[in-house]
Structure formats: C-alpha cells, structure tokens
C-alpha cells in the first residue's frame, strides 16, 4: 500500500495527454465472445458472482449485516480505485480486504483467493453497464501520474511501453488476440486460457511477462497506480465485469 506523499515524490514524469481514441474493451471481442459475455446463462464467470452473493450473507458479522443487500453496492466498483481517508490507494479488492480485517475482524482473504475473487465479481457486477467515474483530482492525482509514468515507460527485454501495443497497435492481431486499448473495465474476468476467473493484476502480470519485464506482485503499488490510470482512460465507459476473454 502506498501513501500520497511517497507517491508524489516518486513522480516526475508528467507526459502526454490521454490518447483521444480509446474504445470500450467489448468492441475488440469477437462477436461470439461478446454475445457470451452478455449472456449470464452461457458465462462461466457467473459461478463466481453467485458464490460472492452467498458469501455476502454468510456469518454473524456478514457484509450484509452492515451494508444491507448486495444491491446497495450498485455503482461502487465504478468509483474504484479510490484514495481512502487515510491516504491509501485502494482498489475494490483492497477495499473488501479492509472490511474483512477491520470491520469483520477476520484474517484477509488473500489476493486471487476464490473468496476474494467471488466477492469482487459479485460487487463489480452490480456496476455492470454503468460508466467508470473514478476521482483523479486531489489525493488521487499523484497516484494517477505515477500510473501514467509506468504506462509510458518502455519495459522488459522487448523494450515496449504499454501504449505501443494498446494505443499504437489497438485493433491489430498479436498471437491470436486482437489488441484492445488495455482497459480494466472487464475485471475480474473469466479467461478461457486460464480456465478460471482472474483479477486485473493477474492480467497485468501476463502483459509484464509478455514484454519479458519483471512481474510485480498482485496488489503492488505500481499495479495499483496503473489500475487508477487505466480507469482514468476508461472514464465514462461501461463496466463489463465479469468479463469473458480468450
Ligand atoms: C461492521 C460493519 C461492516 C462490515 C461487517 C462490512 N463492512 Fe464494508 N464498509 C463498512 C463501512 C463503515 C464502510 C465505509 C468506510 C469508509 O468509507 O471509510 C464500508 C465500505 C465498504 C465498501 C466501499 C463502499 C464505497 O461506497 O466506497 C465496500 C466495497 C465494502 N465495504 C465491502 C464489504 C464487504 C465485501 C464486506 C464483507 C466481507 C463488508 N464490507 C463488511 C462497514 C462494514
Ligand atoms: C506486446 C504488446 C503488449 C504490451 C507491451 C502490453 N500489452 Fe496488455 N495486452 C496485450 C494483448 C495481446 C492483450 C490481450 C488482448 C487485449 O485484451 O488487448 C492484452 C491485454 C491487456 C489488458 C486486458 C484487457 C481486457 O479487456 O481484457 C490490460 C488491462 C492490459 N493488457 C494492460 C497493459 C498494460 C497496463 C501494459 C503495460 C504495463 C500492457 N498491457 C502492455 C498486449 C500487450
């Protein structure tokens, strides 16, 4: 977890404007995959949504006991990542883990655990179709700039920045994939290659590996800041979670 002041100090680069031509991730899916993503009865990610809805109600100090029905989470995922009152940047997973440890007094679920993925999917699904609306001013500004700097830095043995694929080559094919604008709006997503549901940070690790760069830990400060920057690029675009991907 990172704090505003530290992140601001880490930042010097303040680069070019956000690419003008960013399109929703679903626009890059094949027609079959897009139709399947839209149809809960044919979308394996819904198994996690249902499990998350069951978890929401489980135990004496359940999520529901404080928050009410899970429908109260409508629109919440569209506002994350967000800076908490204590200055820490939290994505949805981090926000859930906080309630788990601080409100429920239980040990954290753990990043990429089935329980955390399920709750994240169930909560994110309540924002499906709603426009991304993350705060990028105030305390969030320095995190976003840190994410932007990461996005624009050439990395790995292939010496490629994110935008060299996701801006310059969006719409082109790479190893059987159509390169999208690299937004996080579909996560957590069920990826056929994974044969399971996975988080955005798992996907980011795959892109780091793709350019032969260091794969950062799930939940690392750089991936969190990057997640905020990606969300700022996706501002106004629909949440697609749970997504369905090749
Ligand atoms: C004891 C009461 C309590 C329990 C139990 C609890 N929460 Fe919370 N939760 C809160 C409070 C209070 C906040 C607001 C904290 C803040 O804004 O600083 C919150 C905030 C949240 C938010 C962010 C909401 C927003 O609008 O930004 C999410 C998501 C969330 N909780 C999920 C969960 C989940 C999932 C569980 C069960 C694993 C859970 N909570 C259990 C009290 C609780
Ligand atoms: C060598 C080209 C390449 C580079 C560089 C690259 N990616 Fe990707 N990325 C891909 C491909 C291919 C996919 C899978 C197709 C797609 O969804 O775009 C992908 C998928 C993604 C996705 C998932 C999109 C979705 O809707 O499923 C995100 C988010 C993403 N990349 C972010 C990044 C970030 C951030 C960086 C820089 C750290 C990066 N990528 C660097 C090629 C690349």
From TrEMBL:
Span of the signal peptide: 1-19
**Which EC main class describes this enzyme?**
transferase
Compartments where located: Periplasm
Query: Is Signal among the key words of this record?
Result: yes
Q: Per the record's keyword annotation, is GTP-binding included, yes or no?
A: no
A Pfam cross-reference name? SoxA-TsdA_cyt-c
Extract the InterPro entries matched here.
Answer: Cyt_c-like_dom, Cyt_c-like_dom_sf, SoxA
Its primary localisation, in coarse terms, equals periplasm
Catalytic reaction(s) noted? S-sulfanyl-L-cysteinyl-[SoxY protein] + thiosulfate + 2 Fe(III)-[cytochrome c] = S-(2-sulfodisulfanyl)-L-cysteinyl-[SoxY protein] + 2 Fe(II)-[cytochrome c] + 2 H(+); L-cysteinyl-[SoxY protein] + thiosulfate + 2 Fe(III)-[cytochrome c] = S-sulfosulfanyl-L-cysteinyl-[SoxY protein] + 2 Fe(II)-[cytochrome c] + 2 H(+)
Q: Give the E.C. number(s).
A: 2.8.5.2
Q: How does it assemble?
A: Heterodimer of SoxA and SoxX.
This one is known as L-cysteine S-thiosulfotransferase subunit SoxA
């Amino acid at each position: 977890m990172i704090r505003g002041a530290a992140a601001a100090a880490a930042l010097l680069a303040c680069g070019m404007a956000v690419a003008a031509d960013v399109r929703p991730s679903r626009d890059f899916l094949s027609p079959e995959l897009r139709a399947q993503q839209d149809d809960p009865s044919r979308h394996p990610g819904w198994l996690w949504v249902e499990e998350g809805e069951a978890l929401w109600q489980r135990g004496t100090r359940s999520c529901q006991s404080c928050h009410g029905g899970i429908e109260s989470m409508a629109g919440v995922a569209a506002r994350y990542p967000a800076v908490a009152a204590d200055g820490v940047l939290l994505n949805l997973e981090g926000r859930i883990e906080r309630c788990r440890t601080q409100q429920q007094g239980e040990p954290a679920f753990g990043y990429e655990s089935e329980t955390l993925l399920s709750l994240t999917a169930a909560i994110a699904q309540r924002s499906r179709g709603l426009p991304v609306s993350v705060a990028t001013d105030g305390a969030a500004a320095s995190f976003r700039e840190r994410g932007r700097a990461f996005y624009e830095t050439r990395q790995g043995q292939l010496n490629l920045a994110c935008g060299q694929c996701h801006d310059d080559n969006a719409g082109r094919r790479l190893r059987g994939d159509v390169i999208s604008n690299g937004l996080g709006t579909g996560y957590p997503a069920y990826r056929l290659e994974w044969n399971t549901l996975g988080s955005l940070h798992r996907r980011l690790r795959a892109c780091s590996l793709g350019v032969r760069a260091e794969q950062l830990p799930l939940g690392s400060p750089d991936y969190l800041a990057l997640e905020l920057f990606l969300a700022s690029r996706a501002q106004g675009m629909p949440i697609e979670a749970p997504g369905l991907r090749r």
